[in-house]
Amino acid sequence: MQSDTQAPKVGVIMGSKSDWPVMEHAVAMLERLGVPYETRVVSAHRTPDLLFDYAKGAAERGLQVIVAGAGGAAHLPGMVASQTALPVLGVPVESKALKGLDSLLSIVQMPGGIAVGTLAIGKAGATNAGLLAAQIVGLQDATVRAAVEAFRAEQTQTVLDNPDPRP
């Protein structure tokens, strides 16, 4: 919900426009849970000065968490984390060559002292990054926390209402 009325609480960034088909799932979850966000392309390799400015100014702009998706070398989440004390959630984007394993290993293998929470490769990881970002925001926002709790209750009820696995 990129909105003029609510300041974004979550930044959703990606290394390239080609990452959007994955990262849109993080945005969809944030929208479903009513969490204001901003989204943009910030490349660790092509726009490092923009990356540093974005990360260094994130808290000042009111962000509480950053979701960073990247493929291949996947330096974006770690580089962002090196420039801010905000929680950074890394989403490995599937690559053509190694199916996202390269992205996963690049993000998850951060050296001690620079933390990046790493999610699953692809759509599931992006969806869960949006959910986890909402849970973090929900620590200080009762409305978001209630939306997360309602989402989880809905998931539980869906399983309970459909116990038969056959179509």
Question: Could you give a quick summary of the protein structure above?
Answer:
The chain has helices spanning 20-32, 48-57, 76-81, 101-108, 123-138, 142-161, and strands at residues 10-14, 37-41, 65-71, 88-93, 117-118. With 167 residues, the protein is an alpha/beta fold. Strand 1, helix 1 and strand 2 (37-41) form a beta-alpha-beta unit.
Beta-strand content estimate: 5-15%
What is the count of helical runs? 6
- Do you know the CATH topology? Rossmann fold
Calculate Rg over CA atoms. Answer: 16 Å
Distance between the termini: 35 Å
Order of helices and strands: EHEHEHEHEHH
CATH class: Alpha Beta
Order of strands across the main sheet: 2-1-3-4-5
Give me the secondary-structure category: alpha/beta
Keywords: Isomerase, Lyase, Purine biosynthesis
Organism: Halomonas alimentaria
Function: Catalyzes the conversion of N5-carboxyaminoimidazole ribonucleotide (N5-CAIR) to 4-carboxy-5-aminoimidazole ribonucleotide (CAIR).
Enzyme class: isomerase
